């Protein structure tokens, strides 16, 4: 379904053994879209490589002017034995944005995060190919987890955040008109993406 190996920086490599202080709020990112506001809380303590990579794009304003461009609805996704419920977003450069190197795949087997309703996860082709495109899970979809059947390689996708506000907005986007290729017509524009809290220590 959803997209490229990169050398981890020393900070990211060490991040796997780091945890957020219990008194420090997990970082949140707010997406203002044409359909409304979606706020997601990141999990850098459990998926440091993926969460920190995502924040790099947010802090560079790379998502501003991008869009939610794809919707997949389980009820109509009958051509796949593992139907899913997601909406996918990308920067203005598209889902194959290669302005930064791809990252390693942080499998749900290792992070303990799951593709439940509200999960935010990285789109990819093969393992270790994700860059900027991400998707929001609108209803529980375990086939996207490690060992699930949605991706033929069985490695699943990397969950790194969950929606804390605006899941109803995501579901409205999912229900918007789309063509036979699952492309929203028209796409739902991302007006801005903003970090609401301090950059976590593991990402500095």
Number of helices: 4
Mean pLDDT: 90
Predict the CATH topology.
Cyclophilin
CATH homologous superfamily, by name? Cyclophilin-like
Number of DSSP E strands? 8
Which CATH class is shown? Mainly Beta
Number of domains: 1
Quickly give the CATH architecture: Beta Barrel
Which radius of gyration do the C-alpha atoms yield?
16 Å
- Which percent band covers the strand fraction? 25-35%
Oligomer: single chain
List the secondary-structure elements in sequence, H or E.
HEEHEEHEEEHE
Structural class: alpha+beta
Distance between the termini: 31 Å
What composes the largest sheet? 8 strands, antiparallel, barrel
Which strands sit side by side, in order, in the main sheet? 1-2-7-5-6-4-3-8
Helix content: 10-25%
Task: Characterise the protein shown here.
The structure is a single chain. This protein is an alpha+beta fold and 204 residues long. The protein has one domain (28-95, 110-197): Beta Barrel (Cyclophilin). Helix content is 15%, strand content 25%. It has four helices and eight strands. The chain has helices spanning 10-15, 48-59, 108-111, 167-174; strands at residues 28-33, 36-42, 67-72, 86-90, 119-122, 134-137, 159-165, 183-195. An eight-stranded antiparallel beta barrel has the order 1-2-7-5-6-4-3-8. Mean pLDDT is 90; it is low at 3-23.
């Amino acid at each position: 379904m959803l997209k490229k190996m990169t050398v981890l920086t020393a900070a990211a490599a060490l991040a796997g053994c780091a945890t957020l202080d219990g008194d420090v709020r997990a970082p949140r990112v707010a997406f203002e879209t044409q359909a409304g506001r979606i706020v997601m809380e990141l999990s850098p303590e459990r998926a440091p490589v993926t969460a920190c990579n995502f924040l790099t794009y947010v802090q560079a304003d790379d998502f501003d002017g991008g869009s939610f461009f794809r919707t997949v609805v389980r009820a109509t996704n009958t051509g796949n034995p593992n139907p899913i419920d997601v909406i996918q977003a990308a920067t203005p450069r598209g889902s194959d944005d290669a302005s930064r190197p791809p990252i390693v795949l942080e499998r749900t087997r290792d992070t303990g995060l799951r593709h439940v309703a509200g999960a935010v996860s990285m789109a990819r082709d093969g393992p270790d190919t994700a860059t900027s495109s991400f998707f929001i899970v609108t209803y529980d979809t375990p086939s996207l987890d490690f060992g699930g059947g949605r991706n033929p390689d069985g490695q699943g996708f990397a969950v790194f955040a969950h929606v804390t506000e605006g899941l109803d907005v995501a579901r409205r986007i999912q229900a918007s008109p789309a063509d036979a290729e699952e492309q929203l017509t028209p796409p739902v524009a991302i007006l801005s993406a903003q970090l609401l809290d301090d950059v976590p220590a593991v990402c500095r």
